[in-house]
Amino acid sequence: MLYRHFRNTDPPFLLLAWNESFITRGAAIASNLSTFERYALNKPYFDPEGLIVAWDDTKDQIAGFCHAGFGPNADGTALDKTFGVICAIVVRPEYRRGGVACELLRRAEAYLTYNGAKTIIAGPMKPAKPFYVGLYGGSNAPGMLLSEPGAHPFLTKMGYVPETQVLVFRRRLQGPINVVDHRFGQVAKKYETQVLPGYSFSTWYRECCLGALEPIEFQLQSRQTGHWAARCLFWEMREYQSKYGTMPAGVIDVQVRQEFRKQGLAKYMLHQLLKYLQEIQMGLVEIQVPEQDTAGLRVVKSLNFEHVDTGVAFRKHVPVPGEYLG
Ligand SMILES: CC(C)(COP(=O)(O)OP(=O)(O)OC[C@H]1O[C@@H](n2cnc3c(N)ncnc32)[C@H](O)[C@@H]1OP(=O)(O)O)[C@@H](O)C(=O)NCCC(=O)NCCS
Q1: Domain ranges of the chain
Q2: Which CATH number does the domain 170-311 belong to among 3.40.630.30, 3.30.365.10, 3.10.20.340, 3.40.50.880?
Q3: Ligand 1 in contact with 219 (CB < 6 A)?
């Protein structure tokens, strides 16, 4: 097996390995090369040395790849190279359990530590999700999903420890969306919903990670002042349509202004959003909530979302700079 860095001629082989390797719910099938490149490669910080390819030189074909990147600095204006992220590691089924992933990961870790990483996270998750949002994990970057059978035992064997968990929820949009809440009448009198396309993220890093989703903003605006009190983003999860059998929408970045919390605004806004998404022919909605976000969990459960998967970000501490293996 030959291990080497990314070459410009690799994308068709990466696409093949990607589409063959994931059979479970959490990864999209990339319908073509442009789609794969859009979410996996077309980022200003893409570094060919961070994408390691395992190439079977006896059959002249790809066996797998591992793609590493970096998290953001505190204000999202640049990379923080002390914070390494293993974004994807895939081995085609015919090459599994032969140590290929183990060697790919070792080389990706060496790349990260050579460039300054002190900590390595396996599984992109907020705030560090440099590649693959839109293609892996559903509505957002959830770390590594439990529904992928090999990922967790593999990472545990490689010395990673589970750190942060995110719960993945989904709600189908067939049938009437009836949610009863005595506060809704008052809220509807004070606020109106607005749909605002053309959203741009507030920091460079977030724009790089999430801009390709082309999200649309959904707001609750005060009828009196015109200011928003609650907002969220949604995007059309086009690449997941074939896997889910219907067009899904992803919801991210739900926010209620501090002074308007505990008045049912998030619940009301998401209820309105569900109705809107149903109107525009979306078949289901997916949303991710960190396990410690009790308010968020209450809201999605009250709207009859179902818990369908769990994502975990794994951490490995890197005590000394690693030898760069090239
Ligand atoms: C996870 C994955 C990359 C592992 O690839 P691999 O080349 O088979 O892994 P290795 O042979 O290097 O495995 C090293 C060790 O990890 C553990 N391991 C790997 N796959 C495992 C599995 N399916 N079940 C249990 N343990 C597993 C074993 O301890 C193994 O050592 P052993 O074979 O001596 O017992 C591969 O299964 C895969 O591509 N899965 C789909 C993609 C995916 O889920 N990627 C992660 C999210 S991006």
Answers
A1: 2-165+312-317, 170-311
A2: 3.40.630.30
A3: no
Rounded Cα–Cα distance for residues 100 and 77 (Å)? 35
Q: Which pLDDT belongs to residue 118?
A: 93
Contact call for residues 282 and 249 (beta carbons, < 8 A): yes
Cα–ligand 1 centroid distance for 99 (angstroms): 8
SS3 309: strand
Encode 107-175 in three state secondary structure: HHHHHHHHCCCCEEEECCECCECCCCCCCECCCCCECEECCCCCHHHHHHHCCCEEEEEEEEEEEECCC
pLDDT tens, residue by residue, 216-233: 999 999 999 999 999 999
- Tell me if the pTM is above 0.70: yes
Q: Is 155 within 8 Å of 144 (Cβ atoms)?
A: yes
247, with CB counted inside 10 A (0-12, 13-18, 19+), is middle
Beta strands 119-122 and 144-145 are unpaired
196 φ, ψ (degrees, to nearest 5): -125, 100
If you measure from the C-alpha of residue 18 to the centroid of ligand 1, how many angstroms do you get, rounded to a whole number?
15
d(C-alpha 303, C-alpha 72), whole Å? 33
**Residue with the nearest Cα to atom 5 of ligand 1?**
101
> Which residue ranges of the chain lie beneath pLDDT 50?
none
Architecture of the domain whose range is 2-165+312-317: 3-Layer(aba) Sandwich (3.40)
pLDDT number for residue 169: 98
Structure-token pair, residue 250:
């992803």
Residue 24, pLDDT score: 85
